[in-house]
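Per reviewer request, we include the raw input and output of the structure prediction for the construct analysed in the revised manuscript.
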Amino acid sequence: MPTYINAIGTAVPSHKIKQTEIVNFMAKAHQMSSEAKHRLRALYRASGIQFRHSVLADFGEDAAYDFFPDNDDLEPFPTISQRMELYRKEAFPLSLAAVHDCFKRQKNIATKDITHIVMVSCTGMYAPGVDIELVKALKLPSNVQRSCINFMGCYAAFNALKVADHIVRAQKEARVLVVCTELCTLHFQKNKDEDTLLANALFADGSAAVLLSAEAERGQAQLSLEQFYCALATEGEQDMAWHIGDFGFEMKLSAYVPDIIKKGIRQLSEQLVSEYAKTKEKDTEAAVADYFAIHPGGKRILQVIEEQLGLSTEDNRYAYEVLKSYGNMSSPTVLFVLQALMAERGPLDHKKQVLSFAFGPGLTLESMLLNVCYL
């Protein structure tokens, strides 16, 4: 019996900021020359992003700064402790909003039925943490089992789904709530190197909550978890990394990441299908995916995957829509894509298959095969 994704809920902070406004903040913060501003604006135009959301109003064009110092060089630059204090204030209400949205989208499971919580974040931490705050807010019994997955980056939702899958397969009565919450914009850095400028152009804040169980609800689309496969492209170890500095978490995101993914994505997909065929005794030559849910780590990443797997932009439309409206929110982003895909599924999609990818430090390549279930 497979594990089912019964519902996915999402939430974003109230500050919805145009990419064209954010670039002006960045140009000012970096104290750029006219020529450098021109190059930065070209980078932002090419990003495929129209809006990003943040817990900070500061990035908006007409916003009065309420986190960064209101001066040309933003000094004194906020420390780790200041950033973590704001994370503690903002991460929980955003997570709770995603959970409430999740439960609005399904019919037969109540919050009181939750047996396990898996909390995911790489942009902040404190203890007692968001997981315990959710237990209290949802009035769950104190013996609810809790797990936390921290500092794994954009692919962490896959690891959380794997944990949930193991739990449900071991305990058929389990109801698992996965919550991925990231406040990436807390970690804006002023460095002018290419990697930092690229990271500053992509990342945003958001949260997603997923409800999983061994039961498929009738009358609405579900997704069953069929197969996972993970690989490491160690030649990209230095091209995507995440370190804790004195003034925030520092993202290393090289422009070479799409090229590394390009080299490995076909083999990753083939290996996933091969592993699925072994468990299901199916022909590996058969077409597998009807739909695609790819983590939009950046526009170029989506393009190289399309090139390697023979996909069209229409095949990849859910990823482009999420990238355009929200940017890259790290771990919740692929769940936003899956939510958009689920929302359009109907009875005729029953048993159709979904191929999903996400990427992160390592360089880690995660893949997942799901089936649409509509009873």
